[in-house]
From TrEMBL:
The chain crosses the membrane at residues 66-90, 151-169, 315-334, 354-374. The keyword Transmembrane helix applies. Residues 1-28 are annotated as: Disordered. Keywords: Membrane, Transmembrane, Transmembrane helix. InterPro entries: Tmem135. The keyword Magnesium does not apply. Coiled coil: none annotated. This is Transmembrane protein 135 N-terminal domain-containing protein.
Amino acid sequence: MSPSGDPSGDGADTSAGGRCTCSSTDEENQNCQHCRRSTLPSSSSSCSLLSLESYPVQDYDKLWRIYSASIKGFTIGAGLKGGLAIFAVLSRLRRRKSSKKAQMVSSSEDVVFALKETLRYGLFLGTFAGTFVSVDEIVSAWGGHRRTAKWRALLAGAIAGPSMLLTGNTQHTSLAIYILMRATVLASRCGIKSKRFGRICKPLTWAHGDIFLMCLSSSQILSSYILKQDSLHPSYKSFLNKHGGKAQVILQGVRDLACGNSVVNLDAIENHYKSSGVDIKLDPQMKVPCSIIHENQGCVAHFISFLIQAYKRALPVYLPVYLVPALIVHRQGLLKRPNTIWAKGLLGTARSSLFLSVYCSSAWLWTCLLFRLFKRCNIPMVALGTFPTGLALAIEKKSRRIEISLYCLARALESFFTCMADVGYLPQSEKLKRADVVIFSTATAIIMHCYAMERDVFKSKYLNVLDWVFGVPLPSYETTPRKNR
């Protein structure tokens, strides 16, 4: 693919209508890949469409495209999941303090589980890529490449979506909602370009909308972390419990106070602090939970000490986030300028770790300040106190903010709908069999349609990966796809 986004790579310019605008007198374009002109005497000097008969059969192999997409999809799925699984296993081994024999047994179970997850996600993305390309080729052959161009990728993306079932019986609602959020962003970008919907989608161009979404998501996520952890996905709940840095007895004390109940586990909280060498006596008549949250420390002093500890916990999280994609997305650049790419990866790791540590530590600071200001602790105070926590996203690079805010928004929506279902406003999620697959299929249909028809709404790094897996989609006036080179 050329830097300008021209799928043929020859630099010829095409208009929005899909017709080649290259000059017929320009000798450099005498073999234009869009209009298929050649210097043969029988060729017309004007832009003409290529018939199937005139295209070299050996230049394109449909079965090879399907095979290649499947293998590349499997490689990406297994590579990403495998990289994360390796870091997870190493983290568990480091934390485990049981006997040596127990370590050996549990370690082998961790490795087997990691291998299964790696294989499942590899099969998931490999099957998705292979199914999408297969449907794309079949529909193109039966219905015609040009006639089906406007809806073929939409259909293929929807049919490929159920490949999510290969990840196992566990529902992946958060992942499906996140992909749907990504699809919504792409659709909104298309709407902004549109003359019909451009005015409606104008608010979506707000410069700091990503930070606002993060604040909104933080209010739901962190409130649920303190008040109703059951509404969070188990893996995400484990993540928050680790980086939230507070024991369950402390969270229970804050929860009791916020819900208007008397704190019944004061002795357990005091014993928890005594085990770490801090002797504290809690007041049963307390109005704000600051002494529960950070014992004898002041709110600002606790923020500083918590920030240092949180940064150490955040570093292992972002190492695979930056290093694993560097091996996939920048695989060619690593050979040419390895020092630059690795330096950017390490800088990004340090910056993102600072974001996560500030995010977690400021959550406690904002809530403490709000509790002290209003001299009360209740559920609205918890929701309001966790809202400005999302401002920490400003530390991150602008290009990553929307990714993080959408991910957190997906988690927040899942938690919100779970809470609504628990109080009876929505049907229980158990009654909706594999709703995640339906959501995911809808999202992938939108994404793949945009990929085929509205490529300019994607960032270049995503296009590079998608093009590598699926091949560059051709304009609708092309009648026969080209083989990836």
